[in-house]
Amino acid sequence: MPAVMTIATRGSALARWQAEHVAALLRSAGADVADELVIVETRADQRLDIPIWEMGGKGVFVKEVQAALLGGRARVAVHSAKDLPSVPVPGLVLGAVPARADARDVLVGSTLGGLAPGATIATGSVRRRAQLAYHRPDLTFAGLRGNIATRLDKIPPGGALVMAAAAIERLGLFRDLVQNAITSEVLSPLVMLPQVGQGALAVECRDDDDEARDALARIEDAPSRRAVDAERAFLAELGGDCDLPAGAYATVDADGTIAVEAMLASLDGHVVVRDRAQGTDAAALGRGVARALLDNGGTALLAG
């Protein structure tokens, strides 16, 4: 008889929503899923006083959850794909990327054009800060940490904050923004390229758990997986946890063609290098875009 699928996740409202969503997908695919989630607290959840980039960047939201998986406390782990490092952890495999939500970013509190000169933007992301500074050098910036609901209470007076559209959508908060007459603007990728994997879920299991791998294969969305694979290959080619502002967004056409647009920027946003390419091999395409950026000024940025 197949063993019950236990799911590990962080404890935030968004993380729980994501894990319950995966649980529902697995049940629909015929898997026997445990009713209770395995809730894991990460160091990043505990230390809200430290900016993410000072804690080591990518991986700070997933390490403890992955440890629960490797230690046998759970058979499946659900992450935001944007939080998952591009270098796999030995013993684990990315078993599924379900259908992706909106990958774009949202400005909450104002539109970009509606911000007065010198207005403050709250964000904990160097990627978001650099791209906004490139388009609006007059803006000032403040740090931002905490769960989604807490962040929405921290809109700077006369300013705005930046969040992932998928997070707002999944928690049903767009309706609340309208009801509270809070202005928002979904930012075009032409203005703000998303973080690698943003809007997608990454579902891991142990590489020797064939039953879990088979179950996860049934909830995979092939176009979403190919897009995420291309973006993750881009980041891996840059050097995994690149400290500079970097973003990539891949889409897949009906004929299977993948289009990737990517960017690398200086921390102050004075220099933004972008490139776009198309192809059918996700990994090769992502690596190629990264190399093109490096050849077109990115290497000098990394050398700093």
Quick gist of this model?
With 304 residues, the protein is an alpha/beta fold. The protein has ten helices and 13 strands.
Fold topology:
Layout: E1 7-9, H1 13-28, E2 38-39, H2 43-46, H3 63-70, E3 76-80, E4 92-96, E5 105-108, E6 120-122, H4 126-135, E7 140-142, H5 148-152, E8 160-164, H6 165-170, H7 173-179, E9 184-187, E10 201-206, H8 210-217, H9 222-238, E11 246-252, E12 258-265, E13 272-279, H10 282-303
Parallel strand pairs: 1-2, 1-3, 6-7, 6-8
Antiparallel strand pairs: 3-10, 4-10, 5-8, 5-9, 11-12, 12-13
Helix pairs in contact: 9-10
Descriptive overview:
- This protein is an alpha/beta fold and 304 residues long.
- The chain folds into three domains: 1-98 and 200-220, 3-Layer(aba) Sandwich (D-Maltodextrin-Binding Protein, domain 2), CATH 3.40.190; 105-187, Periplasmic binding protein-like II (D-Maltodextrin-Binding Protein, domain 2, 3-Layer(aba) Sandwich); 221-304, 2-Layer Sandwich (Double Stranded RNA Binding Domain), CATH 3.30.160.40.
- Helix content is 34%, strand content 21%.
- The chain has ten helices and 13 strands.
- The chain has helices at residues 13-28, 43-46, 63-70, 126-135, 148-152, 165-170, 173-179, 210-217, 222-238, 282-303; strands at 7-9, 38-39, 76-80, 92-96, 105-108, 120-122, 140-142, 160-164, 184-187, 201-206, 246-252, 258-265, 272-279.
- It has a five-stranded mixed β-sheet with strand order 2-1-3-10-4, sandwiched between helices.
- The N and C termini lie far apart (57 Å).
The total beta strand count reads 13
Which strand order do you get reading across the main beta sheet?
2-1-3-10-4
The CATH architecture classification of the largest domain is 3-Layer(aba) Sandwich
Q: What profile does the largest beta sheet have? A: 5 strands, mixed
**Overall mean pLDDT:** 91
If you consult CATH, what is the topology of the largest domain?
Answer: D-Maltodextrin-Binding Protein, domain 2
Uncertain stretches of 5 or more adjacent residues = none
Structural domain count: 3
Total of helices: 10
Structural class assignment: alpha/beta
How far apart are the termini?
Answer: 57 Å
Order of helices and strands: EHEHHEEEEHEHEHHEEHHEEEH
Name the CATH superfamily classification of the largest domain. Answer: Periplasmic binding protein-like II
SS strand fraction: 15-25%
Fraction of residues in H or I helices: 25-40%
CATH class of the largest domain: Alpha Beta
Radius of gyration: 19 Å
Shape: globular
